[in-house]
Every structure is written in C-alpha cells, then in structure tokens.
Amino acid sequence: MRKSVRAFTSEIVPADIVRSIVLGANRAPSSKNTQPWKLILVQGEALENLRTDYLSAFNSGKPATYEYIYNPDPLPEAYKKRAVELGKAFLTHKGIGKEDKEKRREHDSENYKFFGAKQVFFLALNRGEYGLGTFMDCGIFLQALITELHNRGLGCCPQYSVMAYPDLLRKHIPNSENLAFLLALPFGYPQTEHLVNTFVSQREPLETFFRVVE
Question: Could you tell me the pTM of the whole model?
C-alpha cells in the first residue's frame, strides 16, 4: 500500500538504482508519445544549499509566487471537507493541538526542508509547451515514478507547496530558466517506525467514485 513518507534515513539511493527507477517510469504513456516531462535530481551540496534558502524564505515570510494554480478556488465543498479532515487527523496524529501555533509552524516548515530527504526529484515542463493534457501526461509519469520507488522499498511525498519559490529553484538548478516546475518529490529509505510514517490517510468508499455501466 502506497502512502506518503515524510521521514527518511540518511542513506543515499545509489545512482544505478535511481537510473533504473527513472528508466522504468519513462515507460509511462503520453499523448502521441510526446513524453513532455523533464526530471531533475537534486542532491548533495546543491540540495543542502536549496534547503537552506527555502527555509530562510519560509521563516522570513517571503510571499509565494506559484506559477500555476493547483486547485480551484474556492475548493468544492466535498474536496474542502476531505482536506480539512486530513489536516486535523495528521496534526492530531502528531500530537499538535489546534492552538499550538509554534508547533504548527514547525510542522509547516518541514515542507520547506523537503522532510529532511537527501535526494529530491523535481518534475518540470518546457515553458509554453503544455496544455491541460500535458499535465495529465506528467501525472501519469509521476505515478509511474512513485510506483517504481515503492516497488524498491523506497518512500516519497509529492509536494506542490515548495513550488512557492520558483526563483530559488532556478537559482540552484542550472539551465532551468525555460522550465516550468510542477512539483518536488523528496524520496529515500523510510524511517519505518517514525511517527509521521505511521500515519495513513483515509480514502473515500468505492461507491462514492466508481460505477459500472453495462
């Protein structure tokens, strides 16, 4: 069962395994075999520098400048209900009270540390070369990538939140001026017994989203 992993060991996933994972994901289907995705692995000193700048931006209250809108605004009521329930359940799981602003902020800051992962994938597209269907292709590729990671005993957590600072991505990722970044995917070997990794989000009952026509 796949679930989001937010605590990793310090072990680096070897280059040959990473390459195998990416090659496996690259068999994902896309419209007319266009394969529009770009995937960048950031690790080592480059990742530590990026992490430092991200955390500094978050702590200083730097305004977010998302380059694309992920969700409709306002959220449809059914979606909003699920989002609120998830947030409450996760904070309760971590023992963070509703009024504990300091711990809630610390909780939020984990996003901008990439959850301490030693390796992070960034998924991107060429600027000006995409439509809604291209996003779907990238979503299929992303799921293939997540599945490849999971099948090798690795964990990950897709992040849109860190798309808040695209200028920092372009600062630390060379030759990225013409890329539109979609999300980050911190990954690695899970700390299995860590509290955050024992949390499992709920899913809607089958009958709420699936039906058969015959």
Answer: 0.96
